[in-house]
Amino acid sequence: MNDLHTISLRSLALFVAVVDSGSFSEVARREGVAASTISRMVQQMEATLGSQLLFRNTRNVSPTEAGMQFAGAARTMLAQFNTAQAQLIDQQQQPAGLVRINAPVSFGQRHLAPWLGELLLRHPALKVEMVQTDDFIDPLQEGTDLLLRIGELKDSRCHARVLAHEHYMLVASPAYLQRCGFPATPDDLLRHQCLLYRGVHGLQRWYFRDDRGQWQNPPVAGALVANNAETLIIAAENGLGMVLFPDWLVGDRLQQGKLVRVLPACEAATKTAPQAISLIWPRAHPLPLKTRAVIDFFVEKVGQPAYWTR
Predict the structure, then answer these.
(1) pLDDT tens-digit profile of 165-179?
(2) How many alpha carbons fall within 13 Å on the CB side of residue 18?
(3) Residue whose C-alpha is closest to residue 24's, from 12, 39, 13, 10
(4) Pairing between strand 207-209 and 158-165?
(5) Residue 1 pLDDT more than 50?
(6) Which of 43, 72, 93 corresponds to the end of one domain?
(7) Sign of CA dihedral 93, 96, 97, 101
(8) 22 and 80 share a domain?
(9) pTM for the whole thing?
(10) Residue 281 and residue 26: Cα distance in Å, rounded?
């Protein structure tokens, strides 16, 4: 037997049509080709398979035993192909399948997790696997479809969609400010309780931009240092001191009146380079509809400006 790969799906479909109709000419008329073309195609198929598939006479054609058997197998193959093709088309028209998302712990809890229910209701064929970690993740190595990362955009191997830019705010509770007063300048912070975050890179520095546009790093200290932002925010709400955190982390507390901005006219940061909140995906792969749907959804929900700043 010769190589079966020389038989195309179209050849199989035309052969099944000939078996069903019993006529080369009828199939040729329906398909808009010459009857001799279909006849030669069947002859080539018989040569490839090493078996006679059709009995031919002047009026019609009929399948041999081998032809009947092969026609049954061909129908199965064509049905499987049509099913697979339909599924792919459906997936292109409707987001479907698993999307693996990786996000920082705090941002994921506050600004991704609350929207997942609506995402899955909007796209019922979608599934989400959510991993939250503050560790570095290489999307090309970890099999992640979509990463949310906060920082500078450096990795040229990836595409990115910026959701928002991170802005830092110095905040404290009304009770603390009533007790200790408002600082007039960043230098006054040395006389205040500053609640400090210690991460994997050490104690977080506080920067403030002066009138000349230069970043200054005034000395700050306080009675509490922690490696968890939520712990420090709760401490600030309870009047223990001031915290410097991004708007997405303290915006809801400001809206609720639990915290108040301090030095609002002074630009603040913990890193002097601009920090973007971005959705990132590997450049090496085309963007599937399911991933694009997730990106579009979160872009819509965050909005412009980001909802936590309104």
Answers:
(1) 999 999 999 999 999
(2) 32
(3) 39
(4) unpaired
(5) no
(6) 93
(7) positive
(8) yes
(9) 0.67
(10) 52
Share of the chain above pLDDT 70, in %: 93
Q: Which of 69, 93, 117 is the last residue of a domain?
A: 93
Q: What is d(CA 155, CA 230) in angstroms, rounded to the nearest whole number? A: 29
Tokens read off for 3: 């190589």
In terms of average pLDDT, the best of 92-96, 129-133, 198-202 is 129-133
Count up the domains in the chain and report the number.
Answer: 3
149 and 172 share a domain? Answer: no
Domain of 120 in residue numbering reads as 97-166+275-309
* In a shared domain, residues 18 and 62: yes
- Please compute, for residue 143, the number of CA atoms within 13 A of its CA located in the half-sphere on the CB side: 2
Which range is least confidently modeled, 179-183, 192-196, 204-208, 284-288? 284-288
Contact 72, 53 (CB under 8 A): no
β-sheet with 158-165: strand ranges across: 126-132, 97-103, 146-151, 276-282, 158-165
